[in-house]
Amino acid sequence: MILLLLVGTVLIGRLAWIQLVQGKWLKQKALEQSTLDIQVTPNRGTIFDRNGEELAVSASAGMVTAVPRSISDPEGVSAELAPLLGLKKEDILQKISNKKYQEVLLKRKVSNDIISEIRKLNLKGIEISSDTKRYYPNNNLAAHVLGFTGTDNQGLDGLEAMYDNILTGVPGRISTPKDASGRKIDDSTSEYYKPEDGYNLVLTIDEVIQHYVEKALDQAYADTKPSKGMSAIVMDPQTGEILAMANRPDYNPNDPFAGPKENWYNLWRNYAVSNVYEPGSVFKAITAAAALEEGVVTPDEVFYDHGYIMVAGQRINCWRYYNPHGRETFKEGVENSCNVVFVTVAQRLGKEKFYKYINAFGFGQKTGIRLPGESTGIVNPLEKIGPVELATISFGQGISVTPIQMITAFSAIANGGKLFQPYIVKAITDNNGNVVKKYEPVLVRQVISEETSREMRDILEGVVANGTGHSAYLEGYRVAGKTGTSEKYQQGKYIASFAAFAPADDPKVAVLVVIDEPNTFSHMGGAIAAPVVKSILSDTLRYLNVEPRYSENDSEYVQKDVTVPNLIGNNVNDAAKQLDELHLQYSIEGVGNKVVDQIPKEGEKIKEGSMVILYLDGKSEGNVRVPDLKGKTIREASDILSSYGLKINIKGDGYCVSQDPEAGTEVAPGTIVNLQFKLNDNS
Asked: Which helix (H) or strand (E) holds 91?
């Protein structure tokens, strides 16, 4: 009796354990064994520019999986699917013949056309579910900002990686009953659990300004042939918003793994936030601001440059040692970028005070911009700074910065002395456009006073109007800037840069261009980087409707207002002719013969010389007539030929002087057009 009671107690306890403790787990296992679940991929959130233009979208696609136990003829199924999926028959056969797996993935991101063909085959045991494919409609545009995704739609670089958890969403599933052998039960009802789509990102980037920057970089990249690439950043100095960011070389995020594997990292790397470089004379703006703020110098104080200065027994030359500047005020010393002047004021500051401003301007620390791979730069410890090191840092040697640090600090000089944290995401929204989270400007600290900022704006305007930055002089606009040329530790290798903001009295945009190891007629920032900044400012200020104010000296440059015509529906060649007649520039996006969209829109008022972006329909039917490309840059000619479905063969640099076949010749799509380019005599 006691034994029976004991056995009963054990059985009841075991039953209670199974029901109360393991019940939920056992129920789940039973469900798994009686149902076949297929994951449904959610739509990844869209990435928009600040004006709602799509920069990264999720295109509809399909995912093909197989249930091996439901396939009675693996050989035949493999033969049917291989050509459609672009896979080897043997690989498919190996997967679908292995009955120990409940479900196997054959291919993701299959186009809808192919999915339609597979459905027609009605292959038992082959399952199709919805999938998404990441698509970047502007191809390379803002590639280093956007990044790209992997085969499982996970973000691998750029904003796609930094905001992966925001963009991804929650997968859904299709649950279908199956029998004891793991086969789908015919005529059974499947349950559909809807996925939750990811949130969207709205960026501070302006697609139009991004186009302007990339157009300027393409031309500069062709002209200067830098061994280590180049970067450009456009910032709103009043908020820290990034309006554009680009690097060369770049890549197409629609196909990020193209080309040799050993080149991938260099192509993906966002030099604007990751690379460190010695800023050279652009850093003199920091030295000048610190000196004025501390009162160790005034704009009108007179200096005398003998071409060099002796520091701790070492001779430190001015860049123009062969023809010294002689007598000059501090303001003129900045305009002349005179090393002797800057070494002198740094000595007056002393290393402790100088380092206080170096740190306050954000050097030696990350800015906090939400992009992967940001570097801190290199600022040597204060205790390692002797008289010579103090002297060289004053003109931007012996300190390394990132482009994002430099443009952020330069903006603080422009905006009244406020250092803002740079940011690139403006808001997170849901699919109904509701704002989930909004990002506002973040003031880090006040670095210099409004009065010092005003003095610096005036001094830096003089650099462009009268000094080394004259190549950035823009008729009708007050541009302030600073040139930079730093010699690398490898002999004969240089970094050329130029930073600027405009208008000088009320800064709306700040621009930085850095060219690493140029191979051209000059390595000086004022000669090769300043014109790139000028191009970007010219297009951007007009686009932002910043009215030019011409002086008497600028009267010959006064440009007329032009009303943008309606170009939608026109042949691209006809549209280009219309724009040429109106003295407007143009950039072509996409391929095809017909214009389907344009920026700016019809009826908008813009200045002569402004840029109009033409979007094409992607279709090219029959033979095409070779367009007239004479006088075009390499980038312009490449865009036009690409739009016609023609290929380009480039000889030389500069502007097109001859072409073969000639303009008007009728050729088949894919024909190579040979173009000869030549630099102008005054280039």
From this structure: helix 89-96
